[in-house]
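pipeline/complex-builder :: batch 7 item 3
reading input block
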Amino acid sequence: GQQVMQIPQYQHVQEGEDFTTYCNSSTTLSNIQWYKQRPGGHPVFLIQLVKSGEVKKQKRLTFQFGEAKKNSSLHITATQTTDVGTYFCAGRDGGSQGNLIFGKGTKLSVKP
Amino acid sequence: GAGVSQSPRYKVAKRGQDVALRCDPISGHVSLFWYQQALGQGPEFLTYFQNEAQLDKSGLPSDRFFAERPEGSVSTLKIQRTQQEDSAVYLCASSLRSSGGDEQFFGPGTRLTVL
């Protein structure tokens, strides 16, 4: 079945450093979503990418969807302590009615 | 406005007991999803409802797991004869439409511990 792999599993950065997490799917995706889960919290939607090669920005966050629609990345510029949490990508393949397949997430810690 | 709510927030069950977990989605949301999240893992899909119809239950791990949404709003996930491997956080999410392209709004989850 469809698998979504995410690396790295953990990332520790100094405040002000950049951070990137990568997501790869075993199948072509119709769209991909990114969520953030703070410690002890629940996943919160960040963004959805639909088009091949799409790039979207939200302040210090940049999201990319690969040309083949099988990979995606999230890049955070100049991390802040408020960025702490686990970032999940979630892909939906073309044949799915609605369910998302989540990656295992990248847990980001930021040292002030 | 009110988000997705779940109850109870915490549940401790003895092995073999039955449990029922409730989800109140955002009013008017067509789609409802249940996920299981083990410690340090991503949410794993269990089942999906479009209104009252259960369109996908491929993620339910065994026939001990049963979900319903009889009136197309509130949903209940029932686990019969709980086992220790059922210990996890059970997340419910809803989305506005049925197109599959909407963001999902998650509830706070129910943390189930089976002793």
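note: The interface with chain B takes residues 6, 30-31, 33, 35, 41-45, 48, 50, 88, 90, 92, 96-105 of chain A (CB under 8 Å).
queue -> next item
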